Amino acid sequence: MGKRKSKAKPPPKKRMDKLDTVLSCPFCNHGTSVECRIDMKNMIGEASCGICQESFSTTIKGICQSPV
């Protein structure tokens, strides 16, 4: 008599890498001065520089990258 065939396990799901929340500013070139915030409740993404006070905000979709 033969062995029972075992079911093949499904491959593990790949995790998505988290995006950076602190970036360098494209206006003043100061490193790690831009802070990104994503408000999933209001569907708004915002990036603001703490040095030169530049800011950018945009509406976001379900799967979105950093707004900068």
Question: Which features characterize this protein?
Answer:
68 residues; mainly beta; four-stranded antiparallel beta sheet; 0% helix; 28% strand; Transcription elongation factor 1 homolog; zinc ion binding; transcription
Structure commentary:
It is a single chain. The chain is mainly β. Helix content is 0%, strand content 28%. It has strands at 22-23, 34-39, 44-49, 55-59. It has a 4-stranded antiparallel β-sheet with strand order 1-2-3-4, with no helix packed on it. β2 (34-39) and β3 (44-49) form a beta hairpin. The termini are far apart. The model has no long low-confidence stretch (mean pLDDT 82).
Mean pLDDT: 82
Question: From the alpha-carbon coordinates, what is the Rg to the nearest angstrom?
Answer: 21 Å
* Derived structural class: mainly beta
Per DSSP E runs of 2 or more residues, the count of β-strands stands at 4
Give the percentage of residues in beta strands: 25-35%
Summarize the model shown.
The protein is mainly beta and 68 residues long.
Strand and helix layout:
Elements: E1 22-23, E2 34-39, E3 44-49, E4 55-59
